[in-house]
Amino acid sequence: MVLSVNYVKIIVCDCSMEYYLQKTYYKTASLISNSSKASALLAGQTAEVSMLAFEYAKNLGLAFQLIDNVLDFTGTSASLGKGSLSDIRNGIITAPILFAIEEFPQLDAVVKRGLDNPADIDLVSF
């Protein structure tokens, strides 16, 4: 028996840098920043030093993820340990895409279509 299902794909995309940075904080930087703060507190440092450690590590975590996102475009599958362009192939909008949309606003419509079409991925990956 073959069951045919028709559906409409609805794309909900918050394509803002603010959302990207918040998501990146929760995904990557929060672990690094909170671990650094806890280490400082456990080492007997003041609350001020602990917060400095937190802020430094937060920015380090954000920078780490930004570089990882850039490498998705510039690295090879062999150097990355995963397929290049894997983020956009999975519909994940990262900083390089957001910067490209700023430079080329017509890409916004392509991204909001969902990046299911390989031609769209080629267009966005410039």
TrEMBL record:
Entry-linked InterPro entries: Isoprenoid_synthase_dom_sf, Polyprenyl_synt
Protein species of origin: Vitis vinifera (Grape)
Residues in the signal sequence: none
Cofactor: Mg(2+)
One Pfam entry name: polyprenyl_synt
Name of this protein: Solanesyl diphosphate synthase 3, chloroplastic/mitochondrial
Family assignment from sequence similarity: Belongs to the FPP/GGPP synthase family.
The UniProt record lists the keyword Cytoplasm: no
Keyword Magnesium (UniProt): yes
